[in-house]
Amino acid sequence: MKSTMVVFVALLFLELFTLVTMINISFCIGNPNVGCVDSERQALLKLKQDLSDPSNRLASWNIGDGDCCAWDGVVCNNFTGHVLQLNLGNPNPNYGTGSKLVGKINPSLFDLKHLIHLDLSDNDFQGIQTPSYLGSLKNLRYLNLSGAEFAGVIPHQLGNISNLQYLDLSKSYYELQVESISWLSGLSFLEHLDLSLVDLTKSSDGLVTINSLPSLKVLKLSSCELHHFPSLPSTNFSSLKALDLSGNHFNNSLFQYSSWVFGLRNLVFFDLSDNEFHGKIPSGLGNLTFLRHLDLSSNEFNSAIPGWLSKLNDLEFLSLRGNSLHGTISSMGLEKLTSIKTLDLSFNVELGGQIPTSFVRLCKLTSIDVSYVKLGQDLSQVLDIFSSCGAYALESLVLSGCHICGHLTNQLGQFKSLHTLELRDNSLSGPLPPALGELSSMKNLDLFNNTLDGAIPMSLGQLSHLELMDLSNNRLNGTLSEIHFVNLTKLTSFSAFGNSLIFKVNQSWVPPFQLEKLRLRSCHLGPQFPSWLRSQKHLFILDISNTRISDTIPRWFWNSISQYVYLNLSTNQIYGEIPNCDRPLPLVPSPGLLDLSNNALSGSIFHLICKRENESDNIYVYLKLSKNYFSGDIPDCWMSWPNLLVLNLGNNFFSGSLPISIGTLSSLELLNLRNNRMVGIIPVSIQNCSNLKVLDMGENEFVGDIPIWMGEDFQVYRFSIFDQTSFMGLCQFNFVV
Ligand SMILES: *[C@@H]1O[C@H](CO)[C@@H](O)[C@H](O)[C@H]1NC(C)=O
Ligand SMILES: *[C@@H]1O[C@H](CO)[C@@H](O)[C@H](O)[C@H]1NC(C)=O
Ligand SMILES: *[C@@H]1O[C@H](CO)[C@@H](O)[C@H](O)[C@H]1NC(C)=O
Ligand SMILES: *[C@@H]1O[C@H](CO)[C@@H](O)[C@H](O)[C@H]1NC(C)=O
Ligand SMILES: *[C@@H]1O[C@H](CO)[C@@H](O)[C@H](O)[C@H]1NC(C)=O
Ligand SMILES: *[C@@H]1O[C@H](CO)[C@@H](O)[C@H](O)[C@H]1NC(C)=O
Ligand SMILES: *[C@@H]1O[C@H](CO)[C@@H](O)[C@H](O)[C@H]1NC(C)=O
Ligand SMILES: *[C@@H]1O[C@H](CO)[C@@H](O)[C@H](O)[C@H]1NC(C)=O
Ligand SMILES: *[C@@H]1O[C@H](CO)[C@@H](O)[C@H](O)[C@H]1NC(C)=O
Q: Which ligand lies nearest the alpha carbon of 660?
């Protein structure tokens, strides 16, 4: 019996082998490759034709290469050669638009009849309708259109893909909606359904349908504009393990009328964050004893921390952030959570008490955030509690705005796993301990706004993983030098304003980091302009105001000026004129500030204000050039500053009249021209600045009447610091001084 079986199997293999060889041969005639079915190859090529692919992800998809089974993102059946999977999800969704496939989906996709897995996530189909013929891909088990930018009504034909196990239609930037989701009832094998960001307002029947899906394990309905769930007579959701209802408009009626929620005994993941719940946290949650992840953040719960939390023995993640909880944090409910890894109680400003010594039992805790809770505790007491397990597992300690006092001590050096230490807005005093430099995992060190004093220890230069360091608004003094940064290769943000620090580095210093943000206001940097900034190609926020710079701005800096979204060089003794230089396009198109005020700059502002050929418009919202020695006409180039809200040109030596293009600043709220040498009349075009609230033209030589329309069209409060004395004409205008 056995041997015949072996023979039979052997024969079968031989048979298969010949078959495969035959196919091989037959393919060899037309093209040398095996595997791929010709009609499917054609279909893929048509699919590619309709897509633009800036990052060349589909480079391997070309006519010359016949075996489409070897193309990137294509998986075939090894025996039949049919395409089984298309994995075209964007591998770098955070890399801007660069790696997206853009365009439409050619209907030839329909020819891939054997497809079981289709992933088009995080591409850009530009708001086209989700293709209804997807419903004819009957073999699909996995369909992922997450973030693929489809729009409109989701086609009910998807309900015909009866084998579907995973369906992800989440996170479209365009509006996706459903008329009804009764079509879901056809998907009886569905295990994973994600409709996050789909507008489900029209589908009040939604949950009833979803309830009929017996295999469902994961249900994500985040930000679906849901207000209330129907009450369900019985629930079929018994296999549901993860439920995400965050970002909707649910309030307590969910608990009152839909208490089936508390019957979901197998639930492991439950997210109710960012809804409109208030009052007591419902005790029914205490029955969901398998929960590992419970997120109740950003609601208005206003009870004490419930004691029944202690029943959730498996809980690893608990967030109560951003509610109105009261009472104390030394709750029985918390101290028994021995599995807890992440605990977030922050932004409950009515909550008080102290971190209790019973927290010594929470030995698995890696991340705790108690920011903006009234603790009023000594830091060393807190550190004693969290170090008592001996393991020092803590990776993130966030205690901002908790009235924490005391000193930072060398005890901190024991927390070797710490990557985040945020203690901003507290009352910490004394010096920074050298042991801070031993926290070799540290990425984010935030000590903003305390009363720390003394010098900055050189050991901080050893924190080779450090990305963000904020020491601003303290009483630190002494000198910062190269050695303080020697190994900070990953630093992207450094902030030390509001101290008495001297920043003293060699003019030829090339720092090991590439900063994005640097704020050193009121540190002592000068007298020379910091030449090391030249190496910082990604810097877009720079505040070196009031830093005793007494120098000209080097030409390379003028050339780089458009890389800044926020640039504050004010209150120095910077002199010289603005040169005509090459300004590349702005790196980050976001509103910003350009402040050169209170310096000794002179000459014309033409090269700053007027763009050169092909240059894009300015993005700045604030432009402050006041208190310098600028002179000449105010250039008639304001059409390239469309976002300006505040324009301060006061206290300079500008002459000539106000240019007509001022009228293109339709967002402008404040215009200060005070104390210049300007002449002429108020241009009629200023009527177009319809958002103007403050107009100060005082101490100039303007002439003529104040136009009647000023009184009619502008609201009176807009002229609160208007100076009548500079007008010689007849005043038909009611000034408010
Ligand atoms: C096809 O064969 C390759 C290599 O032999 C294997 O890695 C792959 O899993 C097989 N694919 C399928 C769909 O069976
Ligand atoms: C769909 O793709 C996105 C992006 O790659 C991914 O985050 C998500 O988990 C996928 N959905 C499913 C159900 O696998
Ligand atoms: C599903 O397919 C059947 C037959 O294949 C067809 O009659 C029906 O209209 C389809 N339903 C939907 C919702 O497309
Ligand atoms: C629960 O599932 C069973 C079997 O799939 C089905 O017959 C029943 O109608 C479902 N109940 C509800 C309330 O949908
Ligand atoms: C929680 O479980 C207890 C005991 O099984 C039960 O009496 C109670 O009704 C349940 N609460 C809810 C809200 O389901
Ligand atoms: C720094 O401040 C401390 C006390 O605040 C003071 O004793 C010390 O002399 C200061 N050092 C320098 C260099 O100014
Ligand atoms: C910088 O870090 C490297 C490796 O992380 C280490 O070998 C080197 O000694 C450090 N240099 C200084 C000056 O600390
Ligand atoms: C501006 O753009 C046009 C068209 O792209 C080009 O011909 C011209 O040379 C550019 N001018 C400058 C100064 O770059
Ligand atoms: C003022 O607005 C009007 C109408 O919107 C427009 O035609 C005119 O060009 C604008 N004037 C200036 C100087 O922007």
A: 9
**Burial grade of 427 (CB within 10 A; 0-12, 13-18, 19 or more):** middle
518 occurs within a structural domain: yes
Q: Which atom of ligand 7 sits closest to the CA of residue 462?
A: 14
Distance, in Å, from the CA atom of 199 to the CA atom of 428, rounded to the nearest integer, reads 48
Checking phi first, is residue 154 left (phi over 0); if not, alpha (psi -120 to 50) or beta? beta
Does residue 146 have its Cβ closer than 6 Å to ligand 2? yes
Residue bearing tokens 């050039």? 625
- Read off the CATH number of the domain in which 697 is found: 3.80.10.10
In the block, residue with structure tokens 């079915």: 37
Taking the centre of ligand 8 as the mean of its atom positions, its distance from the CA of residue 587, in whole angstroms, is 20
Distance 284 CA to ligand 5 centre (A): 6
Q: How many domains does the chain have?
A: 1
Pair 485, 511: CB distance under 8 Å? yes
The residue with tokens 């009483």 is: 475
Which of 133, 162, 128 lies closest to 148 in space, CA to CA?
128
Atom of ligand 8 nearest to the CA of 614: 1
Structural domain contains residue 241: no
**Residue linked to tokens 């005043």:** 731
Q: Which DSSP string do the residues of 300-339 spell out, in sequence order?
A: EE-SPPPGGGGG-TT--EEE--SS---SBS--HHHHT-TT
Query: Which residue among 581, 585, 611, 613 is best mutated to probe the pocket of ligand 8, counting the most ligand atoms within 8 A of its Cβ?
Result: 613
Nearest CA to ligand 8 atom 2: 614
Q: In the 8-state DSSP scheme, what is residue 608? A: H
CB 78 near ligand 1, within 6 Å: yes
Q: Is residue 555 in a domain?
A: yes
Q: Which residues form ligand 7's pocket by a CB distance below 6 Å?
A: 462, 464, 486-487
Q: Is 712 in the pocket of ligand 8 (CB under 6 A)?
A: no
How long a stretch of residues is the chain? 737
Q: What is the mean pLDDT of the chain?
A: 86
Give the three-state DSSP class for 532: helix
**Whose alpha carbon is nearest atom 14 of ligand 9?**
664
238 touches ligand 4 (CB under 6 Å): no
Ligand 1 binding pocket includes 80 (Cβ within 6 Å)? no
Q: What percent of the chain has pLDDT over 90?
A: 59
- C-alpha dihedral over 285, 288, 293, 298, to 10 degrees? -10
Atom of ligand 5 at shortest range from CA of 263: 14
What per-residue confidence (pLDDT) applies to 631? 95
pLDDT tens-digit series, residues 288-345: 999 999 999 999 999 999 999 999 999 999 999 999 999 999 878 898 999 999 999 9
- Name the pTM for this structure: 0.82
| 614 beta partners | none
369 found inside a domain: no
pLDDT in tens, 536-589: 999 999 999 999 999 999 999 988 887 888 999 999 999 999 887 766 544 444
pLDDT of residue 563: 82
Host domain of residue 504:
455-462+474-721
pLDDT digits (tens, 9 = 90+) for 484-516: 999 999 999 999 999 999 999 998 999 999 999
Ligand 2 contact, 168 CB (< 6 A): yes
